[in-house]
Each structure stands twice: as structure tokens, then as C-alpha cells.
Amino acid sequence: MDNVDSLILENKNPEPAHNEYQIVFLIAFIGFLASTDSMLLMPLSNVIMENYKVSAQVSTWVISIYSIFAGVSGFLSASIMDRFDRKRLLIGTFIGFAIGTLLCGLAENNFALFVLYRGITGVFGGIVGGVGVAIVSDLIPFKRRATAMSIISLSFAVSAIVGVPIGLKLAKDFSLMLPFKMLAGISFLTLLPIYFWLPNINKHLGLKMESKSPFKTIKETIKDINQVWALLLAILIVFSHFVVLQFIVPYMENNVGFDADLIPWMYAIGGICAIATAPFIGKISDKKGNFPSFVVLMILSFVPILLSTHISVVSMPLALFICVTFFILAAGRMIPAYTIMSGATTPEKRGGFMSMRSACMEIGTALASIVSGFVVKIGVDGLVHHFNYVGYISVVVGLICIFIASRVKIVSHE
Tens digits of per-residue pLDDT, 29-61? Predict the structure, then answer.
């Protein structure tokens, strides 16, 4: 039976059976909204620097403040994640995310206020991701989970195809605030299918758990070396990706000569190709093993990473091909990585662990933004300098990720 078509929920409750296929795509759509919200400002680095008259280093705080707040909230919420029905927790945090996004859209051109509202959005966004992955991990057996994770990972690709290009168009033609107003509106509407489609997910509540403070939960997690390896993998694999992505648009526009109108196409084509290849990567990972697949994809990703950070004046088709390949492999290597991390803990601890995992990924994004801001310089000539250094950093961190992934033991195959 086909992996996707067979995603039928084995519900032992007396309520009607729910379709896993539908649930997985709903979680993926939530991920799409969150990814678009967090990704949108990266290709607008030039616009932010020009509109607010800030340096490259200061502009990175618009990105990193969201991730910093998301990381902190993810860690602090880890101790309570497994005390609630996951459906109710998702609804509550997603409402907070939608409100935060709306506030961003109402900030007009006040840079300090906009940064503050990005932080508020991050508080809830840091929890939403963990709840969504925990829901899928609870509902999908491990033997099919890589396929489900491949569908969820498409949220990033679909954001690149639809969300980012439309957001860029709206931001450049109208206002930087308009995309956030639209995202907020769609988010509020998405609460309806969340309420009606998701079953109550509370089986984990019957498992024996003691009341713990956030810091005790973090302390106990740190004592579990297997979970520590998985969380380190979450931080570093995201860092390896975003340390390049932070300034790839200014580099392509200012150094390589990309027309600004080509940037949405770069994201769109890269996203389409990532969508086309993700299900194949998921099935291969299920069949051949997640760690071997992760190693191969990680090593292959080094090629477009180094090329995209070193090219200068080349033909536009070649530059576009390199960037698209970067998007495909960067998204592809996340599929087995997600699955490896999801198996590093047991069901009764999964919600808290997934919250911490999402927090670690946000920390990785924040660190990548800050590091790239210190490494990369924008010259008086408008050219991006030292971008090749972030390519080297990305590759070194990628090699470390391979070692860390080899240390993660799968303790849950249910």
C-alpha cells in the first residue's frame, strides 16, 4: 500500500476515524504559515537596510529576535507540553502566533516596535512548531514517519514557491507590513480546520508523569545524552543552512548581478524542485535508513553551498541552477534529520522534547543570523564581502552534524 495513501489513523477511541493524510497536510500548512512569517524578511535584507538606514549587522536583529524569543519560549514551555491535550495546546499557541503576526502588520515603519512585535510572535511560534511535530510523531508510526516528515518539510518549500514571492511583491509594491496582515488573516481562518479536523490527542496524559518546573525538565533532558545529541543536531543543521541563507539575496543581487525580479523566481523554482524531490527522499530514507540517507544528502549539499558563496559574474541560468540545487538539498537533508530526532525520546516525553527541539532550531537560526552579520560586510560600493567565509563555516558545521547524528540512538519505533 502506498505510503501516503496508507496514512489512515488507527483511532481506538469511539469517535470517528480521522485521516492521517488530511492531518499531516494541515500541520504542513501551519508550518507553511510559520515558515513564510520567519523567512519573508531574509530576502528583504536590502529593503530593510535601505528603509531604516541600518547596517547589515543591525538588520539581522529583525531575524534573530524572533528566533531568540522562540528558542526561550520553547525551552520554558517544555515542562508543560505533555500536560495538555495537544490539540488544545496547538489552538492556544496558534492564536498567540496569529495575534503577534497581526501586531507586526500594524507596526508601520517603526523599526523598534516592529522588532518588539517580531519577538512576541516568536514566543508563540517557538511552541507551535514543537506541538505540530509532536502531533505527527504521536499519530504516525515510526516505520512511516519519514514519509510524513517529508510532507511537513514541504512547508518550507511551499513557502519559497508561494509565500515568499507573494510577500516580496506585496512588500516592495505596497508596504512591508501588508504581508504580515495577510498572514495574520489566513492564520485566524486556519483555526477552523484545526478545531474540526484534529482529533483530541491525549493518550500521553495517561502515562505516569510528575509535575516539573521548566528548569528541572531542561536539567533532566541534559542528563539524557541521547536527547542532548539530538538537540545539538537540531541547532547545528539549522545553523548550517541559515548562515548562508541570511545574505544570499544581497550577494546574488549586488555581487552576481541578479535582477531583483529574479529573486522570487529563485525561491519559487527552488521550492517547486524541493517539493518534487521530498516524497522521493522520504521513501528512500524509510527504505535505506535515515542516517545513511542523511550522510549522503549532507555531503551532496556542500557542493551548492560552496558554489553559491563563491560565484561572481556568471550566467544567470548557471547561478539560478546553483541556488535551486542549494534549496533542494538543504530541504532534503532535513527529512531524515527530523526523523532521527523524533525517535530520540519516548512518547510520554515527546511533547516536551519536540518543544525543546523547535527551540534549539530557533536558536540555531538566531546564531546563524548573528554570526553571518558579523562575518559579512557591505562595502561602500554596495558589494557583499566575506560571503565565502560563511560557506566554509556551513560545511564545517555540516560535517559536525554527521558525527552528531551518528551518536543519536533511536529509542522509539512505535
Answer: 998 898 888 888 877 777 777 777 777 778 788
Record the pTM: 0.74
Three-class SS of the chain: CCCCCCCECCCCCCCCCCEHHHHHHHHHHHHHHHHHHHHCCCCCHHHHHHHHCCCHHHHHHHHHHHHHHHHHHHHHHCCCHHHCCHHHHHHHHHHHHHHHHHHHHCCCCCHHHHHHHHHHHHHHHHHHHHHHHHHHHHHCCHHHHHHHHHHHHHHHHHHHHHHHHHHHHHHHHCCCCHHHHHHHHHHHHHHHHHHHHCCCCCHHHHCCCCCCCHHHHHHHHHHCHHHHHHHHHHHHHHHHHHHHHCCHHHHHHHHHCCCCCHHHHHHHHHHHHHHHHHHHHHHHHHHHCHHHHHHHHHHHHHHHHHHHCCCCCCCHHHHHHHHHHHHHHHHHHHHHHHHHHHCCCCHHHHHHHHHHHHHHHHHHHHHHHHHHHHHCEECCCCCEECHHHHHHHHHHHHHHHHHHHHHCCCCCCC
What digits encode the pLDDT tens for the residues 234-277? 999 999 998 998 888 888 888 888 877 777 888 788 878 887 88
